[in-house]
Amino acid sequence: MSKGNIGVTSDNIFPVIKKFLYSDHEIFLRELISNAVDATTKLKTLSSVGEVKGDLGDLRVRVSIDKSKKTLTVSDHGIGMTAEEVDKYINQIAFSGAEEFLNQYKDKTEAIIGHFGLGFYSSFMVANKVEIFSQSYKEDAKAVHWSCEGNPEYTMEDTIKAERGTDIVLHIDDEFSQYLEDATIEGLLKKYCKFLPIEIAFGKKKEWKDGKEVELDEENIINDINPAWTRKPADLKDEDYDKFYHELYPMQMDEPLFHIHLNVDYPFNLTGILYFPKIKSNLDVHRNKIQLYCNQVYVTDEVENIVPEYLTLLHGVIDSPDIPLNVSRSYLQSDNNVKKISGYITKKVADKLAELYKADKEDFAKKWDDIKMFIQFGMLTDEKFYEKATGFALYKNLSGEYATLDEYMDKVREAQVDKDGNMVLLYTNDPDAHYTYIERAKAKGYDVLLMDGELDVHCMSQAEQKHEKLRFVRIDSDTIENLIRKEEAAKDEYTDEQKEGLRKAFEGLLPSAEDKLRYFVTCEAAAADALPVFLTQNEFMRRMKEMSAHQQGMSFYGQMPDQYNLVINTAHPLIQELVAKETSEQVEEEVEKKAEKEGEEPKKETVIKTVCKLEGEDERIKQLIDIALLASGQLKGEALAKFVNRSVELL
Ligand code: ADP
Q: To the nearest 10°, the Cα dihedral for 236, 240, 241, 245?
């Protein structure tokens, strides 16, 4: 037997392990199993080049628990280690610059483990004693038994071990007794080892029989050693991809819409499969479903810094040995490989979507509502993706027809360009509420888009920024004549005084102002067949308010009351009748004649002004106002009841 000190230059490694690596204890299992799998893979490689002769026999890695001895054992039949190798790989741990490094990465377990190659030593996070029993594949090598109790001293001696390979025996600390529970270990194995390339066995398969769980003779294999992403796309059918999706997400009921198989080996290595899930609303619940693997070992499902944010909405796996997993997250963002990887994924995703659209526009349109959120989010957050996505991002009109923006603009160009050369695209987010406006637009031969998605307003603003002469306007934001102006505004023959009289009469009878609602009364010669009075809502103000709901720093708009224009349509016979009933009178008024800007002392002067008054028409005006409110779905409760009663009386 030999004794020695583990070669650490700093005081010793164990307090470091216990003190700093407290956050993610469970990864010890991943580390030990990765080593076992590596040792087995190495053996297979040696065998394939003829350096190891004969049948390799059983290569399963086994994990077992002995509750009475309080041990957890990971056994493999890999290459094993000779005493010299244990000395070299386990005893001599390079530990240079430790303090400096520890200060930098105080509680970043993975960083420390990766940096120091502490994979094996992470077992001391949960064990007070660890033993290695190893028999190397090398001829004449003696089996070795190494033991260490969490201090810099270890013992090493020859032993007898019947089978080639390594057993790592962890004497689990009382504090961590959960790692002696089957359920905990099985859970961890499923998390980290589900797709390792060597079979991992844990206990026996169980089955429910007569209301009881019984053990079968068969070993319980945790992993799928040939996960779909490691196979050639040509060997896989759609069903295989769907099957793998459910293997990844056993709780997910929906089928994915489509998949992308990633496979690149230059300038970096990356394989994987990404799935498009249905995303109807609530972006957040769909996030963080992509699992990141490094040579089939699960690493994390927090991929934010590795793929662009909108891609975190996708599901699936990415496997790359080239993503530096053991460094801090902020470092990842600036890493060149990571940037390339994220650029590559963006391109692949965009190309795939373009290809799907081209191949079958109708089928793509059918799926559009389910992938729209994802694509819009991508367009809004990634310029490169935006450029590609203009070729397949669709707009849907009220007849349920889909088209890209370019296709759509071509379609409506003839009818919907105004006198200044602006292309005006009309939309509604609520066809029922905007029914009367939509009918008027249709009567003019215009098309109306349905824009009721969460990100639609943002996307419209983005499209407007990209196209100089493009404007989106909601169908109720002005009279249809004003929305797409073909000629100079129609003039009515009324004087300013008459219109002012009309305005005042309506203003005085508006429903009492609420804090969150404001009406502005205006007169306009809309059209004889339009409603006599109707509401419009300024596009810009409304959109700012809507966008402020999603964006920080825009609360100014969010706090503004909802503003509507109550438009009195002076082209309507009912309004013309009202004007005819106006009486004119002359009043004296004091006004400041000269403005201060002219530098003179403002002189008060008396002027004579004509004022028009409309009297005795209150009931009719109230009725007209209510009709406008009703047509916009704003007449409710008591006001609605009053309107109904008044209507009956008028009849
Ligand atoms: P890393 O795996 O990052 O190299 P570890 O501390 O986990 O660091 O392991 C150190 C070395 O010990 C490995 O590189 C390998 O050579 C050897 N080793 C560890 N576990 C085994 C095993 N089960 N079988 C054979 N060799 C092993």
A: -150
State which ligand 1 atom lies nearest to the alpha carbon of 36.
Answer: 23
pLDDT in tens, 514-551: 667 788 999 998 888 888 999 988 888 888 887 777 66
- Bridge partners of 425, per DSSP, are 472
pLDDT in tens, 170-198: 999 999 999 999 999 999 999 889 999 99
* Ligand 1 centroid from CA 205, angstroms: 29
Tell me: the pLDDT tens digits for 292-335? 888 888 888 878 777 888 888 889 999 988 776 554 555 556 67
The residue nearest atom 16 of ligand 1, judged by CA position, is 89
Residue whose CB lies within 8 A of the most ligand 1 atoms, among 16, 95, 120, 325, for a mutation test: 120
Q: Name the residue of 35, 133, 135 whose CB sits within 8 Å of the most ligand 1 atoms, as the mutation to test its pocket.
A: 35
120 CA → ligand 1 middle, Å: 7
All residue ranges of the chain with pLDDT < 70 are 4-23, 93-118, 280-288, 324-334, 513-515, 550-555, 589-606
Match 């419009």 to its residue by tokens: 536
**What pLDDT sits at residue 285?**
63
User: Hey, what domains does the chain have and what are their CATH numbers?
Assistant: 2-220 (3.30.565.10), 228-362 (3.30.230.80), 393-483 (3.40.50.11260), 496-536+558-650 (1.20.120)
Closest CA to 459 of 416, 423, 427: 427
- Measured N-to-C along each axis, helices 496-507 and 573-580 cross at an angle, to the nearest 10 degrees, of 100
Residue type for 534, please? F
What is the token pair recorded at 203?
Answer: 């206990």
Residue nearest to atom 11 of ligand 1 (CA): 89
Give residues (CB < 6 A) around ligand 1: 31, 35-36, 39, 76, 78-81, 89-90, 117, 119-120, 166
- pTM over 0.85? The answer is no
Determine contact, residues 262/274, Cβ cutoff 8 Å.
yes
User: Where do we find the tokens 């891609």?
Assistant: 311
Cα 32 to ligand 1 centroid, rounded to whole Å:
8
- Ligand 1 centre from 556 Cα, in Å? 59
